[in-house]
Amino acid sequence: MAMKFSPAEVMEMAVELEKRGMVFYQNLYENSRDVSSKEIFSFLQKEEERHFEYFTDMIKNLGEVPTHYEIMDETTEYLGAVIEGGVLGKVLKGVDLTGGDTSLLRALDVGIEVEKESIIFYQGMEPMIPEGKIDILRQIILEEQRHFLKLTKMKEEHSS
């Protein structure tokens, strides 16, 4: 059975994921020698920073989170399963997902996995977000989808 989290805990996980994403992409930027890769990693780091600010703001306004308990229980159980069963749980625990492999291709693989699971996690958060702020979350989801595509294209370019 998956763990259940309070809305505050889910928002804090989102903040932590974005914070770790900022560090991840900053490290990739610093360790990359390829100019186009550096540009993409810098862009992604700035995007994660914006997302961090959004979720930080949401925590300040947690009173706005709906309290439909049947939906909330199901939502938080689902989000717990996403965290426990995948790469995001490892990210939150600070596990080095590269396994010491600092190659660009390994970094791209990790980034692709994190972006993919972030999309799933943020989509699962939708029932917790007040109607007036749902468009911002949906924008973040679209941005994460674009990040996923950018990283996938980079991997294809560097694999051939």
What labels describe this entry?
160 residues, mainly alpha, globular
Write a compact overview of the structure shown:
It is built from six helices and no strands. With 160 residues, it is mainly α.
| Biggest sheet layout | none
CATH third-tier fold name: Ferritin
Along the chain, the helix and strand elements come as HHHHHH
Q: List the uncertain runs.
A: none
Outline type? globular
Find the count of extended strands (DSSP E, 2+ residues): 0
Spatial separation of the terminal alpha carbons: 42 Å
The CATH H-level homologous superfamily: Ferritin, core subunit, four-helix bundle
Count of individual domains: 1
Structural Rg: 16 Å
Q: Give the structural class.
A: mainly alpha
**Total number of helices:** 6
- In the CATH classification, which architecture applies? Up-down Bundle
Helix content: over 70%
Percent range for β-strand residues: under 5%
Mean pLDDT: 81
Oligomer: single chain
**Top CATH class:** Mainly Alpha
Describe the structure in your own words.
This protein is an all-alpha fold and 160 residues long. The chain has helices at residues 7-31, 35-60, 69-85, 87-93, 104-125, 134-159. The chain has one domain: Ferritin, CATH 1.20.1260. The chain has six helices and no strands. The longest helix is centred in the N-terminal third of the chain and has 26 residues, at 35-60. 29% of the residues are buried. The model has no long low-confidence stretch (mean pLDDT 81).
Write the layout of secondary structure elements.
Layout: H1 7-31, H2 35-60, H3 69-85, H4 87-93, H5 104-125, H6 134-159
Helix pairs in contact: 1-2, 1-5, 2-6, 3-4, 3-5, 5-6
